[in-house]
């Protein structure tokens, strides 16, 4: 069974997807982390973001695997744990440019489909219901106001000791959403058969229950 969860930046996708996957005993696949991984390596290796050919070569060679350690999902990039490194403001600011490259998307989508072919999955991202798993039995589109998404992101960073202004975060999130929804290849878009959930005034557990209810209805 495939559960596709899409939506704009910081709508709470990964938090609720993880819990939904745990509840269903499915594997959780965070596709945003995969694009962040390619972006991190490109920055570290000094590859210009405009150099699509070199970034595509990098995406073809990257080894990404997710490992569950003490109940927390870690991302290993080329065998090294880079879980925190992919979440920096610098990676967030550059990931939309990297994820818009055709060769990068081709590689990542192939990896994602392989993973989904082997397990029951909850997969979150931007194009899961529209492109990666168009036949997913359950498709959810999670949204929330920009203000509430910026607030959540601010709290996430605060818990890691990074203080960022709310106005700046709102601007960053809106800019990333704009780029993700206006790119040429598989832009962020609600699939026609997705169930939309506006999480602005919902708790995490409300959202989890709402998604589980959709899954049960379709099982
Ligand atoms: O979900 P997260 O915020 O970690 O995603 C980071 C970025 O990766 C997004 O802003 C988008 O540019 C890209 N992405 C994508 N397609 C996906 C998942 C993420 O293009 N399926």
TrEMBL record:
Spell out the InterPro entries in the cross-references. Cytidylate_kin, Cytidylate_kinase_dom, P-loop_NTPase
The record's annotation in Gene3D superfamilies points to: P-loop containing nucleotide triphosphate hydrolases (3.40.50.300)
Give a GO cellular-component term. cytosol
UniProt keyword Transferase present? yes
- Specify the domain of life of the species encoding this protein: Bacteria
User: Which Gene Ontology molecular function entries are recorded, alphabetically?
Assistant: ATP binding; dCMP kinase activity
The Gene Ontology biological process annotation of the record reads:
nucleobase-containing small molecule interconversion; pyrimidine nucleotide metabolic process
Coiled coil: which residue ranges?
none
Per UniProt, which keywords does this protein have? Kinase, Transferase
Q: Which NCBIfam families match?
A: cmk
Official protein name in the record: Cytidylate kinase
Give the source species. Amylolactobacillus amylophilus DSM 20533 = JCM 1125
